[in-house]
């Protein structure tokens, strides 16, 4: 293969395109659908600055406490939330939300009227599968009751990725 062959040029182009992710030790992933509410939370928490580092131990657009960032898998994305992409910060925040609920953001959740625990729908999720995964007493019927304004009452219908489903 000559140095100017189309295959070699294509390989160099791909390498250059992927270089930042390779150097950072991170794979390039397809974008994940996230609920728009995270933009509102970030606006409230940090003025919408995903790179916020105010020196108080809380980092990024969602002002995630460093030990919480670590314990909910944040190091898969960056050393601190402010060094991760908005997508990475939201992915970790969704794990925090499943575990701690909206009280992880006490002031802004009150201001925005957010409460309880929630699950961000992943591709392929149904109300039935979410109910089983989180051992919801009452199953899909309980999730339908809790989320009647946002989901169809069909337990096996696929849900839109990024939709936040209230958990009991």
Summarize the topology.
Elements: H1 6-24, H2 37-46, E1 58-59, E2 64-65, H3 66-71, H4 86-100, H5 106-112, E3 117-120, H6 127-133, H7 139-146, E4 164-167
Produce a short descriptive summary:
The protein has 168 residues and is mostly helical. The protein is built from 7 helices and 4 strands; from the N terminus they run ααββαααβααβ.
The major sheet is characterized as:
2 strands, antiparallel
Helix residue percentage? 40-55%
Q: Output the strand order for the largest sheet.
A: 1-2
- Tell me the structural class: mainly alpha
Basic shape: elongated
- Total strands: the figure is 4
Give the low-confidence spans: 8-31
Q: Report the average pLDDT across residues.
A: 83
Task: Count helical runs.
Answer: 7
The rounded distance between the terminal residues' Cα atoms is 61 Å
From N to C, what is the helix and strand string? Answer: HHEEHHHEHHE
**What's the Cα radius of gyration?**
19 Å
- Percent of residues in beta strands: 5-15%
């Amino acid at each position: 293969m000559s140095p100017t062959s189309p295959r070699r040029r294509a390989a160099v182009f791909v390498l250059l395109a992927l270089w930042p992710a390779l150097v950072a030790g991170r794979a390039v992933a397809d974008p994940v659908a996230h609920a728009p509410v995270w933009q509102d939370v970030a606006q409230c928490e940090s003025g919408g600055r995903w790179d916020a580092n105010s020196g108080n131990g809380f980092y990024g657009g969602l002002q995630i406490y460093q030990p919480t960032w670590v314990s909910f898998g944040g190091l898969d994305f960056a050393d601190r939330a402010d060094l991760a992409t908005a997508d990475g910060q939201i992915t970790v925040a969704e794990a925090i939300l499943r575990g701690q609920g909206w009280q992880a953001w006490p002031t802004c959740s009150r201001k925005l009227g957010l409460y309880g625990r929630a699950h961000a729908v992943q591709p392929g999720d149904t109300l039935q599968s979410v109910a089983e995964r989180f051992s919801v007493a009452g199953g899909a019927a309980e999730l339908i009751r809790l989320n009647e304004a946002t989901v169809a009452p069909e337990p096996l219908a696929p849900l839109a990725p990024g939709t936040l489903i209230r958990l009991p």
